[in-house]
Amino acid sequence: YSSMKISSRPELTEFEGISMVHYFTDNWKNVQNFKARPDDILIATYPKAGTTWVSYILDLLYFGNTAPERQTSLPIYMRVPFLESAFPVIPAGVELADNLPTTPRLIKTHLPVQLVPKSFWEQNCRVVYVARNAKDNAVSYFHFDQMNMVEPEPGDWSTFLHNYMDGKNVFGPWYDHVCGFWEKKKMYSNIHYMFFEDMVEDTGREIERLCSFLGLSTSAEEKERITQSTHFDTMKQNNMTNYSGLPVMDFKISPFMRKGKVGDWKNHFTVAQNEKFDEHYKQRMKNTTLQFRTEV
Ligand code: A3P
Prior knowledge:
- This protein is of the alpha/beta class.
- It is 42% helix and 9% strand.
- Bound molecules: adenosine-3'-5'-diphosphate (A3P).
């Protein structure tokens, strides 16, 4: 697939009430009709919240010992299919998921809660949701849009931030996404809601919590090994987890494994942008009990 290059940026379009690009809507019928199995695990996130990190942790928890050759031969995006994706460079997410040989299947989505295929809820699948504070999430998304040819041009930082506050970026508003899954938890108990900041603070503790949600009795040694293997520097070096094989990204502009920090927003937000953002944030988040940390 790697000989195929994307020549132009997609446009941002309106789809089912959110901003989208065609790469995530081209296969919509198959996405909507996706047949989940009861033991599927859905990894749901707003883009840039730590999806790859948690995906790799889950992959190692389930298959680190039973299928070690998968870890060294298949990139993470092939092991954990991106459900709604229909990129020209790899098979569509639904197709990859349908052909996964493993049980459970680990499946990634960025869809907001209202667009998640209903089969996942009907089958009472386990859902692991990862959320990241709005400011660091914005900064990470900005760099990602710059280097990823399947994303619309982000413009400069101030343009991007303005659009982000407006929800005019792929997968819609951050605010609705994180709150949507937070609310869903009240009606649907099979969601483990976790935070990027907690993972940075204490990865081992978060792996522990994941294990108890998933009912896994992984040994302490194994958990320690997974903590080491999923460290930022290790994942950045690992060609199976750093996205280096995907030709739609230009690492000369920005690497996929960029910084992996909490608080990098301080290097991007001006004082004025920060004040405006905080004001707007208060409005957008006034009806939720959901709380984030912007530093650890
Ligand atoms: P930064 O751009 O802030 O560095 P996603 O996988 O959802 O696209 O999220 C990508 C973000 O998670 C990037 O953030 C990336 O560096 C960070 N990340 C990925 N693996 C990580 C790890 N093991 N530890 C810390 N951060 C990680």
